[in-house]
Design brief:
Strand content: 15-25%
Radius of gyration: 23 Å
Largest sheet: 12 strands, mixed
Number of helices: 15
Helix content: 25-40%
Oligomer: single chain
Mean pLDDT: 90
Low-confidence stretches: 1-30
Structural class: alpha/beta
């Protein structure tokens, strides 16, 4: 046969086979969900019911921080759902990036922990429109190597600026966590009330911290590797870091009882405008991640709390106690909650943090 005839023959033969087997093959849909997320959250254990129902994993694309995600979405990047945190929801909504949520399609909407339901401009806007469903919550907290740092040396968050820790410190390449640290260090626990003078004071503190920074981490893997190798002794980190390292028998601890306290945050999922997948797939995913059965894995393996009150109530009490979630009120005591802040203030923080990281 000539090449053309061979190709035509093979195509015809293949089509014949497909048609013959058609009734035995599963229906195929080109519809695929794209999730825009933090690295690590592609973990299949977070959404088993989605995979079971859809027959496949969703597609994932990742961002390093929410400002990067925001700018990418503003420039036209397409995804169906995304995973911002509390302090970004208002900004994303005001920029027209979000689709409202139909709460009738969200199986766990009414089971979200009451503290999150009560937060202004988090799950809903003032007119009652729903935009955001919480998924996980936790702390950004002082984390240190117990073989090189004594607890008394880190009794205060001001240790991050202590010259004795030069080149031994890591904080996140994340404006929200950075200014949460700085706000606490200057004695401010409600950053929505930050004055211009306090902004300058907080920024000055971060400039002192910058002198000690070995690494601005972008995800838990970066930081965990740096702490495990001894490159970093002192970090401003999420619960996940200590949980991961302790599971590997690394000499790492968190210190929640510093003089100034710690930061608490909540992150969750939104639907994005312009998403190309079926809305049903988006709701299937949101229902999967907020399913109460996910809570135990979230707490035990990641060290975070889950948003579903029924799910948290079903977690082994010993695990809740070990991870610090037995008493929610105590968990958030002496904390700066990373609540939604005025967009203008956050833009100031973003611009200033870029200068700080560049040494200015």
């Amino acid at each position: 046969m000539t090449t053309a005839k061979t190709a035509r023959y093979l195509t015809t033969a293949a089509l014949t086979v497909v048609l013959a087997l058609g009734p035995a093959l599963p229906a195929f849909s080109a519809d695929s969900l794209t999730v825009f997320d933090w690295s690590g959250y592609e973990d299949p254990a977070f959404h088993p019911k989605y995979t079971e129902k859809a027959g496949a994993e969703p597609d994932f694309s990742f961002f390093g921080d929410e400002e990067e995600a925001f700018q990418k979405l503003r420039s036209g990047f397409k995804a169906d759902v995304a995973h911002p945190c509390s302090q970004s929801v208002v900004k994303w909504r005001e920029a027209g990036l979000l689709e409202p949520l139909d709460t009738a399609k969200l199986a766990s909407w009414n089971d979200v922990l009451p503290n999150f339901k009560a937060m202004k401009n988090l799950m809903t806007s003032d007119d009652g429109t729903a935009w955001f469903i919480p998924f996980e919550w936790g702390n950004t907290v002082l984390t240190y190597r117990t073989d090189t740092v004594k607890p008394e040396e880190v009794a205060s968050l001001k240790a991050f600026a202590d010259p004795k820790f030069k080149d031994r410190v890591s904080i996140g390449d994340n404006v929200d966590d950075a200014y949460a640290l700085a706000s606490l260090a200057i004695g401010l626990k409600d950053w929505t009330m930050m004055t211009d003078a306090q902004f300058q004071e907080a920024s000055a503190f971060l400039r002192e911290v910058h002198k000690n920074v070995r690494l601005y981490w972008t995800d838990n893997t970066d930081l965990s590797q740096a702490m495990a190798s001894g490159e970093v002794d002192l970090a401003w980190a999420w619960n996940e870091t200590a949980t991961t390292l302790q599971a590997e028998s690394q000499p790492v601890a968190i210190k929640k009882d510093t003089k100034e306290g710690l930061s608490t945050w909540v992150c969750g999922y939104v639907r994005l405008k312009g998403g190309e997948a079926s809305p049903d797939l988006a709701y299937d995913y949101l229902n999967a991640v907020t399913d109460p059965a996910v809570a135990a894995y979230m707490v035990e393996s990641w060290g975070y709390g889950h948003s579903n009150a029924k799910g948290m109530a079903a977690v082994d009490p010993k695990i809740l106690k070990d991870k610090g979630y037995a008493d929610v009120d105590a968990f958030v005591a002496n904390t700066l909650f990373q609540s939604p802040m005025p967009t203008e203030l956050r833009q100031k923080m973003i611009a200033e943090f870029e200068k700080i990281k560049s040494g200015y």
